[in-house]
UniProtKB/TrEMBL annotation:
Gene3D superfamilies: 2.60.120.920. Residues 1-149 form the B30.2/SPRY domain. InterPro entries: B30.2/SPRY, B30.2/SPRY_sf, ConA-like_dom_sf, SPRY_dom, SPRYD3_SPRY, Ubq-SigPath_Reg. It comes from the Eukaryota. This is SPRY domain containing 3. CDD domains: SPRYD3 (cd12908). The gene is spryd3.
Amino acid sequence: QCYQGNSEEVGCYVAGHPLSKGNCYFEVTIVDTGVRGTIAVGLVPKFYRLDHQPGWLPYSVAYHADNGKLYNGNPVGQQFGPKCARNDRIGCGIHSENIGAGLTTVFFTKNGKEVGSVEIPASAEGLFPAVGMHSMGEEVKVDLQAEWFLEEDDSMMMVDSHEDDWGRLYDVRVSGTLLEYVGKGKSIMDVGLAQARQPLTTRCHYYEVEIVDAGEKCYIALGLARRDYPRNRHPGWSRGSVAYHADDGKIFHGSGVGDAFGPRCFKGDLMGCGIMFPRDYILDGEGDVDDWDRLEVRPGHAGVQNILYLNDEEEEEEDGEEVEQGQEGRKVTVFFTRNGKLMGRREMGVPPGGLYPTVGMLSSGEKVKVDLHPLSG
């Protein structure tokens, strides 16, 4: 749904069917907040005036995204919950109907968590899902089939628990291990970025991404980046990062220009990224790390001399990178895999705070499954 009005008038969408026992909840995802973000989500009676926001007129109720207020049959709202912005999901449903008292309990959620509830007069013809908008550029997605589970539901808890794995999420929606790009996908500034909460360590030095849906262009990148990596840059494009890009099989290392590296990746491919830590990084005798060590890094200092396939031009770029990150000056070897096979590796300096698993997406429909601990299972 897009707002097409002239900002003087409200635009209101009302669903064709009221909420019922079998279908007692719906959700609205804010695609764009437009000029003012005056988006309202709620329930209205059957013949509601479409030039009024839901919640303004009697027998209607709505949660307004721009101020987090609840409007309950009144053009003056009351403080209710947090404000909502782009990519937030606002849900609305009916908990129970107390027919005797003629009341219906309506509850609202933000991103799957309940914000609060309110009792409103029951309406004989039912209450209809409604979305109101009131400024240019506002756009929402309405899901009338959405489901909502109470917190006790184990499956929901499982799904929720993975959000904690991610320290930063921009234009990416998480459900369980699935990451979904929800950005605009129109320009190179519309990067969707997911960065893990924890950096790779000797204990947990590798992660994998499966391409579930390549979307329009398969602009999917996986790699490692510094903690304060810019949100609108694909991993690999800016300093303190390195990434393997699925659409062209290139490796990008702190530069918008990539180098030929491996094959392109498609739906169903499993891409992996990890670090081979030099001997002196290892804090424990973990089997996996030792295996990689024996494979790649010679004891002592030789590991650093070991990888001489960089050409001169890249070496210069590397030096520049090290100057910027000179606080630690520690180097590690980052490696990438595709479907279990080693694609290649790249040496890089470790920025302060470490290197964080970072996934970028940039065209609509892209979905990936991420396993941040594939070796622990």
